[in-house]
Prior knowledge:
Radius of gyration: 18 Å
Distance between the termini: 21 Å
Number of domains: 2
CATH topology of the largest domain: NADH Oxidase
Number of helices: 8
Bound molecules: flavin mononucleotide
Largest sheet: 5 strands, mixed
Mean pLDDT: 94
Number of strands: 9
Strand content: 15-25%
CATH superfamily of the largest domain: NADH Oxidase
Amino acid sequence: MEYQQSVIKLIKIRKSCRTYDGKAVEKITLQKLIDYATQINEKAKIKVRFTLVNNNNLEGKLGTYGNISGAKSFFVGILHKEEKDATEFGYLFEKIILFATDLGLQTCWLGGGFNRRDFKQNANILENEFIPIVSPVGIKKETPRLIESVLRIAVGADQRKPWSELIFKGNAAVPLSESDAGPYAIPLEMVRLAPSASNKQPWRIIKDNNALHFYLCRTRSYGVSNYDMQKNDIGIAKCHFELSAIELGLTGKWQQIANINALDDWEYITSWI
Length: 273
Ligand SMILES: Cc1cc2nc3c(=O)[nH]c(=O)nc-3n(C[C@H](O)[C@H](O)[C@H](O)COP(=O)(O)O)c2cc1C
């Protein structure tokens, strides 16, 4: 198993946190985070590395423009400038987020709202690298700041689209019921619970006989300028699906099927077979 606790439980309890208690994470816990990130770095098939940066005596040095308060450590995700695989990046970063959750810590995916220059300096970024995502890591303050509550309401952070808008049977017009999903009901529900940029939930899945085809339904006017944030969201969904399927003993693997086309405005990504 990837974690000490059930991954299904971890996915259910993870929630973005933007108000931390201002205390440094214990050294022994930090070391566990670093060790896990090192393991991910060593196994990664793309040009990526994840590192932990501490903000201990430098209140405000790692700028997050008031979006995050009281965090003393941050995970920093670093990609080679030529590396385009945002799906794999999202998959790997979510593994780290769930590992932190397993250790009783809170996190928050940040694709924006942080000072890239501060993080570049503190994470020793090379000329040919950039930072698509960072996440604070620490213990939440019991009462969140008003700004955090307002932000959660603004993006509907506690809501997810219903199954009928995300998961389909045979084609994109027929919703798949949870009972029709059979043993895949739980892994599909874990996709539905995934975090996504601005909570847009761009994943769509079609079950076809024994295959589950994953598509990306892009949000209009959601640009892809330097980094494809919505492909990153698909990576998070893959992580939740795969780890929960493994936990349930379901066998299968990811496969790119050559003759599957895009559907209207849905981009085909991959299939679980
Ligand atoms: C790729 C990605 C980028 C995100 N970027 C930001 C961000 O820049 N600022 C922020 O406050 N939250 C950000 N979030 C957090 C989402 O708003 C949050 O995951 C979503 O509203 C669902 O809430 P939950 O994580 O508490 O379940 C991001 C999430 C993802 C997955």
